[in-house]
Amino acid sequence: MLTSGKEILTKANRQNYAVGAFNVNNMEQIQAVISAAEQKMAPVILQVTESTIKYAGLFCLSDFITNLAEKSFVPIALHFDHGTTYDLIIQCIRSGFTSVMIDASMFSLDENIKKTKEIVKVAHACGVSVEAELGRVSEAEGPYFNENESEDDAMFTDPTEAETFVNEAGIDSLGVSIGNAHGKYRKVPCLNFERLREIKALVKIPLVLHGASGIAPDDLRLAIRNGINKVNTDTDLKQAFSDGLREIFLANSEECDVRKLGGRAREKMTEVVKEKINICGSTKMAL
Ligand code: 13P
Ligand code: ZN
After folding, report:
1. Fewer CB within 10 Å, N- or C-terminus of the chain?
2. What are the backbone dihedrals phi and psi of residue 173, each rounded to the nearest 5 degrees, phi first?
3. Which residues form the catalytic set?
4. For residue 153, what pLDDT band results from cuts at 50, 70 and 90?
């Protein structure tokens, strides 16, 4: 059933597990996530970014996902990931998203609060949940997460600022920066669990871990035990999907049946989503 992000995450927060939030770009990826969630009887969040909307078209994504979600027996939220513009966030709300992220983490605390509050006002009036981010989650291949650890530290979420941010902005979930980064890590990611515990002690709403691809399962489990309730995965899914395509092409470089190609890619991705759901501890939580 199509469900608000808040409803799904509040239950996870109360019962100390996390919900997998999976980035999708096309029909096969959407089906992979929903099929894995149903096999595991787990609540799930499907999320799309601005570049995905540019690629696939807003209504193609929202109509397809909300339709499948309404027919499914597991709770499913449709989330706009890393929204940066007011206009596109409003368009997502109007086209049926049940959750949106306003990512104004590149601005000062005051500016972040101001931009986030604008979205919260409209979204909450429509029954749509809001995620925001404080601290910077960088690109694993970008200029950060490198030699100088104090540089990384400066981007981490400050617990006291997080408390102020959540109280003033009125958001439903908060993305944190604790050593996580988007994309393929260049060095083994080292999460700052102490920082996470400090944030969770002051901030009672569900916390979100971006950049979960490439983080060791035990570290993910520990992060969840210490207050993470939404685990965002994209790169590992793209990898599984493209591995499936490669496998078919390697067997027959002339293969042109898109159902064979897409079908194998979908199977590969479904398996990875199921593994992530196991790690999140959300198996059977749809019941
Ligand atoms: P990864 O691509 O590193 O898994 O990050 C996903 C993410 O944070 C989506 O918002
Ligand atoms: Zn992210």
Report:
1. C
2. -155, 155
3. 81
4. confident
